[in-house]
Each structure stands twice: as structure tokens, then as C-alpha cells.
Amino acid sequence: MHQSSRRDFLGSFGPVALMPWLGATPRITLSRNEVGDTMDEKSRAKTGATDEVKAVKVDRVECPNWPLQSLGAVVVHGDPDASGKTVFESEDRQITGGLWKCSPGTFDLTFTWDEMALLIEGELVIEEPSGRKVRLLPGDFFSVPRGAKTRWMVIKPIKKLFFSRE
Q1: pTM for the model
Q2: Is pLDDT at 4 greater than 60 in this prediction?
Q3: Cβ(16)–Cβ(89) below 8 Å
Q4: Nearest-CA neighbor of 138 among 150, 156, 115, 153?
Q5: First to last CA, the chain
């Protein structure tokens, strides 16, 4: 039976065109209509706007099941259930960003990628092998380096925006 990996769950709307941190020349051409929503395809065609900047509404991102096992996580307590979707991806597939959710429970996770994230909802405690615990609440921005061995204690269901680098 095929073992799913984290990469199997990286569905994408397409590559991100604006990546100044990779040395690209920034060209911001975000098109907006009068009410501030992203323009639809017909409006873009009429105005000649380009698709160089991608935008999505976080509350409209559908999050299919994303098994913790696909991340290499080992459940320690409870029955945490994860879901998420990668929304943006660099052309070389090394940098991704998206939305991830998880229900309460505890699991161990060793990161094989670098990640920065913004907790949008819930309550989370991340414990390091040294015993140091980091409590995260909505609005907290955090990072976890590749190779970090962590224990995640999801106290209240979480939703986070993530940005990762393979």
C-alpha cells in the first residue's frame, strides 16, 4: 500500500509570481474592483490586468482531510484530526503556503521542513525535548526550524496559515 507523504497533500492554485526573497524583480499588479474584492477573470480581460499576484480569501479555502501520519506525526493522546490545503507554491515547489486545521489532541512531530505560521484560531502548546513549552493563541506568529522535534498539544481546535520551505 502506498504511504502518503506531506508532498502528496500539496495541492496548488499555481506558482507564486511575486517572490522578491528569491531575487525576483517585484511587480505588483493586483487588480481590485470598487468593493475591494479580487477581480474575476472577465474583469481582468477587459482591463488587461495580469495574474502576477495571487489572492484568496482564507475563509473560502476548503480544507480536505490531511492525515497527521502524512506529516510523520505520531499521536500520543486523544484523536486529533487534521485538514488543510496548500494554496500557493513556488515554481520549484520548495516554498509553499496554505491553511491547516487540527482538532484537540497530542502528537509528536519532527519537522523535515522549515515553517513559519500564524495561528488564526484555537489554542496550542508546542513542547520541545528540553521541556520548554510555547503557548500559542490567535494572532501569534511562530516558526519551527527543520529538524525540530516537537510535541503538539492542541487544546482548542486550531487554524493556522503556514509558510514552509522544503
Answers
A1: 0.70
A2: no
A3: yes
A4: 156
A5: 25
Question: Where along the chain do its domains lie?
Answer: 6-12+58-165, 17-53
Query: d(Cα 74, Cα 151) in Å, to the nearest integer?
Result: 9
pLDDT (0 to 100) of residue 135: 98
What pLDDT score does 40 carry? 53
DSSP assignments along the chain, one per residue: -PPP-GGGG---S-B-S--GGGTPPP-----B-TTSPBPPHHHHHHHT---SS----GGG----B--GGGGT-EEEES---EEEEEEEE-TTSSEEEEEEEE-SEEEEEE-SSEEEEEEEEEEEEEE-TTS-EEEE-TT-EEEE-TT-EEEEEEEEEEEEEEEEE-
Q: 76-134 pLDDT, tens per residue?
A: 999 999 999 999 999 899 999 999 999 999 999 999 999 999 999 999 999 999 999 99
CATH class of 6-12+58-165: mainly beta
What are the cell numbers at 77? 493522546
